[in-house]
Amino acid sequence: MAGSDLAEEMSGHTDTEFQVNRRSGPDRLGALLVAIAAAGLVFQPFSLFRANRIVAAKPVWLLSALPPLEAWLVLAVVIAASAILLLRTRPALRLIVCALTLAVLALAVGRSGVFLTPPPNSYARVAPGGSFWIVTFAFSIALADASVRLRMSPLGRLALLALTGGALWLLLWSGAWDSLSILREYANRADVFWREARVHLLLAVGSLAVAAVVGIPLGILCFQVRSIRATLLNSLNILQTIPSMALFGLLIAPLAWIGAHVPGASAIGIAGIGIAPAFVALFAYSLLPMVSNTVAGLQSVPREARDAARGMGMTTWQRFFEVDMPLAFPVVLTGIRIVLVQNLGLAVLAGLIGGGGFGTFVFQGISQTATDLVLLGALPTVALAFAAAIMLDALVEIANPVSVRSAEA
Amino acid sequence: MSPGALFRLVFVVVLVAFLAVPQAFAPVFAPFASNGAPAIYTQSGLLTLTLSHLAMVAVATMAATVVSVGLAILVTRPAGREFLPLSRSIANIGQTFPPVAVLALAVPIFGFGPIPTLIALFLYGLLPIFENTLTGLTTIPPSVQEAARGVGMTALQRLIGVELPLALPLILAGIRLTAVISLGTATIGSTVAARTLGEVIIAGLISNNTAFVLQGGLIVAALAFFIHEGFATLETALARRTRGALLI
């Protein structure tokens, strides 16, 4: 990434500019986001109403999607929050205002579901419309911007993530969204949903764990034995170019053969269809980032540190476990972050070959043109990948030694 | 001719021959076809699918290049500096969106066919190019910047004459990453009825015909290899040239 002095010079720039601009005119990012939100509210419906699960949706604008009083209240909240974003206000205030606005929007879209489908009607579906997504997007960006301006510590970001997760859980648990179409889909298949969620996590995290157990020692070997480094990394690179869908498919035949011919293989679940080919494919894709990041981490250990350790009379093993590994750890952890986020996304493809996971809903939804079912699979996937990225980024920052952290800040 | 170059030449010839007369390769794939199933995909021509696949990747990559290089230039100018920290974190977080999810979310909005695939490829392609352009533009040695300012170049002249050429190898690396990722992601587009090589793979998955999966996968992997190689050659040549220019 950017050299430390340049990064510092740049952040210095933004600071002075921020202060100069502070005295004159509106907040420019705020203005842009408010314009996006306003365009969303004017040109896109707040909710989509369907008479049943698969017919075309009828757009409903905000003022008719909610009882009049509530609709005007939501509008007033959005306008007041927009005013605060437009002015050059303090980041902490912006953060709180954005969080509150997002909460109001979330409650409002749930209320609109109740309002548009009175209880006896169990066929009609209400889904969030374009303006809900656009306004939510604008305020989420504003929220991200406020947290960047606050320069939150890793622990602060983890706390914010936990709070968001808690709020989301509260919304789902309280039933505020129960009348929305995506939760109607969920209610129809609640137990399948949790089974697929477990499979999805098992695929993503399990293959990562195996890749770490195999990949880190391989990386250490590559670092020590220079002659095999190029060969191994190149072959893993080639593996990476095989399109994921094809790799999932290609593993079906060999695994079916192993399941049928190797004694005991089928007992531990190795078979041509189901979870095994997906697991092996994800493992194969995870191997390259694990090996190459271990090598890069070990290469980043300063020669002075090794020399000092040798000077102190540490044995080879002591040097390796007390100097090399701790110093390489942040880079290895970065590799784990890359793999986990990538695996959570790729595991969707398991749905295509009967391997389960959230992909089951995505591909079922696509083949039935049932948008809500697609969302039921895609939204949890995105949320998981997103949470994993924030969590591991914070951990990487915590794991980094102070010197590195201050240089990158 | 070096062994590497010879290997690449043979590889190209085999790929082109396979796309031109796939039936000639039927004996190669026949062992993978399950009892009596055709060994070569004939629903649509492999060449047509390959061209349509490449066209889709090219269009999406070019659009992503124009937009993300433009954005990166914008946030590194004095007027856009305010947006730099945010755009960095958006680019970082945006990478976490799984391509399949982007595709799935685009279908309800844009319907079936090539459009959602193009949108997904475009959106997913923005980030690597943006990130690399940003790195390229922000790591130019201050001495070079000062020299350019010293000889009286205007901001625009500095951008076109100094900053962009120096950042070009990194920008190209970003485009390469995007193109290679898009090539693989485009196969998933066939689940929403885009005409790509994914069609062959899906046909194989549905009819349990490994020969189809293999030929679809191999063509995509070969294309990815050539695009990767082509860009890498260009990057090293350019990097050598800029380094030479800097020394003078």
pLDDT < 50 stretches of chain A = 1-23, 403-409
**Average pLDDT reading of chain B:** 85
* Distance between the amino and carboxyl termini of chain A: 12 Å
- Structural category of chain B: mainly alpha
Give the biggest beta sheet of chain A: 3 strands, antiparallel
Number of strands of chain A: 3
Q: Which percent range describes the beta-strand content of chain A? A: under 5%
Overview of this protein structure:
The complex is a heterodimer of chains A (409) and B (248). Chain A contains 18 helices and three strands. Chain A has 409 residues and is mainly α. Chain A folds into two domains: 4-182, no CATH class; 190-408, MetI-like fold, CATH 1.10.3720.10. In chain A, helix 11 (244-250) packs across helix 13 (275-299) and helix 16 runs antiparallel to helix 17. Chain B is mostly helical and 248 residues long. Chain B has a single domain (43-247), classed as MetI-like (MetI-like fold), CATH 1.10.3720. Chain B is built from ten helices and no strands. In chain B, helix 6 (114-138) runs antiparallel to helix 8 (155-188) and helix 8 (155-188) packs antiparallel against helix 10 (210-247). Chain B is flat. The mean pLDDT of chain B is 85. The chains are: A mainly alpha (409), B mainly alpha (248). At the A-B interface, helix 1, helix 6, helix 11, helix 15 and helix 16 of A face helix 4, helix 5, helix 8, helix 9 and helix 10 of B.
